[in-house]
Structure prediction request, 437 residues.
Amino acid sequence: MTSKKYDLVIKNGRVIDSALGFGRNAHVFIKDGRIVKVEVDSAPIRQELRTLDSDQIIDATDKLVVPGLIDIHVHLREPGREDEETVESGCRAAAAGGFTSICCMPNTTPQIDNQGTVKFVQDRAQNTDARVFVVGAITKGQKGKELAEIGDLVKMGAVAISDDGFYVQNAEIMRRALEYARMFDIPVMQHSEDRQLCEGGMMNESYESTRLGLRGSPAVAEEVAVLRDIALCRLTEGRLHIQHITTRRAVDAVRQAKKEGVNVTAEATPHHLILTDKEISKEFNTNLRVNPPLRIEDDRDAVIEGLVDGTIDCIASDHAPHSAEEKDCEFDQAPPGMIGLETSLGLVKTFLIDKGYLSWADVIRKMTINPARILNLPGGTLEEGSLADITIIDPEKKWTVKADKFLSRSNNSPFIGQQLTCQVYKTILNGKVVFER
Ligand code: NCD
Prediction:
């Protein structure tokens, strides 16, 4: 507690907040880690600003001031693969990408399938540059055989359950998971790829995979998985969240289910919104190997359409760090996954806002309040009394993604060399600047 009326004031920014509905010049006043008020510019407010010490003020002229971004799909590799990412380094990368809250997936070694591992990650996340919310496993060891102690996980603070990386193949287990999760009002986040159908797949099954002689993982693997889970969600009245949706038919299925009132939400990753399987043959860049795989243009277009019409609720990176040693190999030998925290916002601006698909307001909604609502997270808004988690964006700043500039411990991004058209200027967590350029 300090005696000053405000700890921090962000003045002259263009505030975008879906709850407040602003998109204009306003000032954000912060005290004790909370938003005191957001005021549209006026003579009395300018007078009040003159009374403040300059060290309390951030001038955000020509910048966007938005709620701290939220990424609900992140892989931190701790415990187990601290060479690829730690909770701390992942949070540093998050802050650099404008994220103040991230949700980490349980596919660590050991898996986050009990209270001890949830607590371990939470302890590691103390005093880092982002809030970390833990997603517990659906099944013990993510083996798909036996439900994890879901009540225990929730008691310890898990905000959702997921076997991400693995689809819960057994429909009976998935049914029970939805029922249990419903008792705690948390969603089941599903990696929707039927395991048998995509067995051995290295890229999307298509003309390209045939041409390249690489085993394909078919779009129908996702469609089958999504349709089954929608049916189970309808039956159980639970909450289903489809992770990284990638195919036209899966998007159609979610659209239809929502119309019928099924409690389903979905996320899309920047890479599935931007890239297609055609990229792979250019260089066989192993950073393009990812699950679910990059699809054909028609699927990519459908994911964009779903994002635009609200079928897809949010954008999540699926930040999946892998070591250079493991990615430096033949395409079919590489582990799937790419990092995303530090490029997510810039990619969305460059490829979706600049091309006219989405407005800034749409993007901010899909990267703040919508993901917050799906997982009942704090934040996502600048409303009075809410957390002072804020991202300040330089909306026209051009920069080029460079391999040696990532704060993540890994640099497995296929976007290295790509010019992006906006950059995070400052990230504020709990009223304190945790990242600045
Ligand atoms: C993820 C990872 O590396 O943890 N990889 C990926 O391609 N998305 C796990 C997964 O979802 O397969």
